[in-house]
Structures are given as C-alpha cells and as structure tokens.
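FYI - complex with F0G, inputs then prediction.
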Amino acid sequence: MNTPRLVCDACGLEWPESTPKTRCTCGGLLAVRHDPTLRGDALKASFADACCAMPSRTASGVWRFGSVVQPLAMAEAVSHPEGNTPLLHRDALDRWSGLHGMLLKHEGHNPTGSFKDRGMTVAVTQAMRIGARAVACASTGNTSASLAAYAAQAGLPAVVFVPAGQIALGKMAQALAYGARTLLVDGDFDACLRLAEQAGEELGIYLVNSINPFRLEGQKTIVLEMLQQLGWQAPDWIVLPAGNLGNTAAFGKALTEAKEWGLIDRLPRLAAVQAEGAAPFASAYARGFDTLVPVAAATIATAIRIGAPASYDRGVRAIRDTNGVVLSVSDKEILEAKASIDGAGVGCEPASAASVAGARRLRHEGLISPDARVVAVLTGHLLKDPGVVERMHADPGLIAKPNRPVSVAAGFDAVRAALA
Ligand code: F0G
C-alpha cells in the first residue's frame, strides 16, 4: 500500500504522519507525499472500481480517490458523503464569455454548499485518527460552515474564528446551526488566521485551515474527479478563484501528481483569479513573483477578502508548474459574471463568479482562444450570500439588468397592472 509521508516544503524534514502540526520547526508548511503502487491505467481503473465497490465510503467523490489522498484512513472516514459534483454547460454562458463549450465544475453541490467539504472530510478524519480533542479554523465563512458540519458528525468540539461583520449570512447561519463555537473577531481574515494558529499551538486544538496538509489532499479531488469526468483528457485551462491560495496549491499538486502517475499526458494551464481589492497574488505575479506584498483587502466577494495568503509559496509553485497565469477582476466584473451565471439557472456566490469573469477577460485579451477547452470552477452555492443577491437587484448601477422585485397591493387590478 502507498504509505503517505509528511515532508516540510521548505527544509525537507520528514514528520510522522500523525503529527498535529501544520508547520515544521523551520516555519515551512508540511505536505503529504504519496508513492502509489498503481500507475496509469491501473490507477484510473482502481478509481472507477472504487466508485461502486463500497457505497458507504467510496460513494464519496473524495474517498474513492482515497488511495492517493489518505490511504491510511479510508476505513474510518468521517464522510457525509461529499464530492461527485457536476460538470455543467450553458449556452448562455458561452455567449457571455465568448468561449465555445466552457464547462463549470459546480462545487456548490457539496453537502454544505462549497468545495471546502472535500478538504474537511479528510482533515476531520485525520483529527479523529490522531485523537484531537477539538478542531479550529479561521474563515471567511465557507471553511467554518464545513468544519462545523463535519465536527458535528464526528462529535468533536469546533471553534471558528471569523471576521465580524464580513461573513455572508448563509455561512454564518451554518456555523451556528451545526453548533461550532463561533468567535466574531474584531479584525480581518488575516487576523483570524493568526489567532487560530496561536490557538492551535497554545491550546492544543487541531488546526484545519488549508495550511493543514490533509485539507489539500481532499481538495485535490476536485481536479481528479474533473479529469475522470473528462475521460482523463486534460482541458487546456482550469480557471479558479483565489484567496488564501490553498485551492490553487491543491490544484497544482493534483495536476503534477496526475502527470507523474500517468493519469494525464499533459498539464492544463491554471488561471487563478483574484478580486481587484484583494489581489496580492495577482500583483506579485505581475512583478514576476518577486515577493508577496500583503494588502488591506476589500471586495464584495467576502470569501476571497484576504490580504496575506498563507499558501503563497505553494500558489507560486502551482502557477509556475502549470505555466499558469494570475489576474484580478473588478467587483463590477464579478457581479456581472454572477448575474449571468445566476440568470442561466446555475447560480453561485460572488467569489465563485470571479472564475467566469476571469475566463471572459482572458478570452477577450486573446490569451484563451474561443475553442480552448476551459473548465471554470464554481466554488460555492448561490444561497451562501443572499444579501448580495438582494443588493445587486435593488441598488441601481450594480449590474446592467437588475431583476427588481415589484410591490403590489393585494388586489388583481394591481397584479394586472404590474404584469402589463
Ligand atoms: N471561493 C470560495 C467560495 C471560498 O470560500 C474561498 C475561500 C475561495 C474561493 C478561495 O480559496 O482561499 O483556497 O484560495 N474561502 C476560505 C474560507 C478562505 O475561509 O472559507 P483559497
């Protein structure tokens, strides 16, 4: 069997797989390294077989890839299940983006409505394996919602650090409903992450932010499942929104591993899309990745309102390894993209729409050709942020074609007049 190893990104020091640490003593982040016994077609076949072998576990779109995620935990996984999200196509979005056949990998179809469930099933499973007494995360909302649900399933106490007044209603509702101890921090996400890391060190609580190596292993399965859905024919481009860069890092790792293990024969290019007001990664890219300059982040896409991405070095590697690009789009572009995605009957939260806004921009700039095979990742569900939907359809000037609600008196004359 493939026995995964935990290795420091920075100094190469090896740690026991059961360590509760996310960082090496040198400060570097720990990563999981695999050496699967199967490769190429045999590995693909094992994923396909797992799909129907043991429905209780491998019904999950994460755990059927368990042999290259966390093989030591497959029998004891805390699984909802999760994953198995669709690849969608809508003509209306082709027309809007200028692309022919753009596919949407809709991670909002996960149990708590975001891609975070893929990492969280693995991180909470690992927390149980190592006997953690509690779990914690900092979050712009989705990670806290997901942690709260998986911790509740596992019977583990959960603490979430969220920036007060900066998380969307749906996400806050989930953290409270699933029973997480919810700390509304008078600061931004970056302050929350510092506090969560400190709680990990000083209170012995297991940290499950995306700097947790097992979170990334779970999030890799967005890419593995997408490639499987495409018959292991890699697309030309994968476009995703980028904040703390955990997902960008996971995508890069998944793709380089898939190539190394003979699952695909060429690498797609990654396009990581940030919001203009929270774009330290895009700025660093424009400067040839000289250094990360943190910013005071501001954007309507609260999920990616992050000024000092924790997985910056890994994000850089993912972009370099895939000959990728990083760009930023304005809140206006994000809302227009969201209006188009919503209006096509698909729907997503604002941060997710950044990927489609980015795909459109790259098409218009000529970097992506109209016939390129593009997969844009929608990271979260429309109902995560009902407040933005209300505002964009009420406030004048936020989007080109708002769908204003119409107040009518409770009589049919008023209805007839309203529908005339
Ligand atoms: N899209 C959504 C909907 C998110 O919630 C996030 C991150 C991202 C994109 C960006 O992913 O941080 O790995 O680059 N949300 C985190 C959270 C920060 O706390 O829920 P990233």
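The first strand starts at residue 5 and ends at 8. The pocket of F0G is lined by residues 114, 116, 139-143, 210, 241-248, 303-304, 349, 351-352, 379-380 (CB under 6 Å).
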